[in-house]
Amino acid sequence: MTIPPALLPGLKVPVIAAPMLLVSNPRLVIETSRAGAIGTFPALNARTTELYESWLDEIEAARRTGDAAYGVNLIVAKLNARLADDLAVTVRHKVPLVITSFGADREVVKAVHDYGGLVFHDAATPRHVEIAAEAGVDGIILLTGGAGGHTGWLNPFAFLHDARKRFDGALILAGCLSDGRDVAAAVTAGADFAYMGTRFIATGEARAEPDYHAMMVAASSTDVVATAAMSGTPASFLTASLRRFGLDPAKLDLRHPKVETAPDGRPLKVWKEIWSAGQGVSGIDDVLPAGELVARLTREYHAALAARHPLEAP
Fold first, then answer.
1. Helical ranges in the chain per DSSP H
2. What digits encode the pLDDT tens for the residues 136-173?
3. Could you tell me the CATH number of the domain that includes residue 99?
């Protein structure tokens, strides 16, 4: 495994709770890290840069000796007018882990490396892996088929093999990971971390409505559709959430043009009203506190690693 040493203190299970639009927040980060996984949130979940800094203050004030690391997600794209200001705040607070999306920028990587931080980057294709590696990132998050939010298409085993040929840093596997056995499988297959988003939506600390939680618990893997219609980029959404607004999931193919209004003409607040989840909902049967979830993942992970297969060598 190639877990960066800076992320080992306090880590009880190789899990990163992915930064999720609207859902992730300081309390979820605090409780996740306290229990022994890495909690993260998108800087843009805070409405302003000033609020983003206050969230970092809140997280840092709550941290205790023995907590696992935490991280933030920065959108590295021209459309993010806050990037420079949010990066300056990130540098000032020396955030241990920065996850970049929609652009691997050498200057961002350098700014984080200069204070001793680490940078992981999202990648959905082998070419994205190469671009991130060239930018000097420390880890690459492999978005595989069935992942929630902005998704990928490749089989996880194939993507791990492909990525390792192109990159010798940490590999983080994202897509359909719901329990500790999944984490053990990811590590056994060659990943250094499991990246879990959907599973952490179903926690008490997540900013998710009760109906969102209920929809996730009731869903199976076939109740998720990947389409570009909601955000302009292929992402995974709960079919029941789409149907609430009269949208037919069967007609929203992967490259469908972006949808701005519901069939009845009502403007859609896609980022708020259409709920995202990955195919890993099939492994979610309950909603529980983040600390309890991490404790369960830890038990399941170690039990899976300790279990002997009938064909295992003596």
1. 26-35, 49-62, 83-93, 106-114, 126-135, 156-166, 180-188, 198-201, 210-218, 239-243, 270-273, 290-306
2. 999 999 999 999 888 889 999 999 999 999 999 999 99
3. 3.20.20.70
Q: Which residue range is the domain that position 84 belongs to?
A: 8-208+286-312
Residues whose CB falls within 8 Å of the CB of residue 181, separated by 6 or more in sequence, listed in order: 300, 301, 304
Lookup: tokens for 307: 């279990």
The per-residue pLDDT for range 185-232, each reduced to its tens digit, is: 999 999 999 999 999 999 999 999 999 999 999 999 999 998 888 877
- The first and second tokens of residue 264, run together, are 């009845």
Q: What is the pTM of this model?
A: 0.94
The structural domain count of the chain equals 1
Give the angle subtended at the CA of 162 by the CAs of 177 and 183, to the nearest 5°: 20
Phi/psi zone of residue 136: left (φ > 0), alpha (ψ -120 to 50 degrees), beta? left
314 C-beta neighbours (distance < 10 Å), count:
3
Alpha carbon distance 35, 87 (integer Å): 27
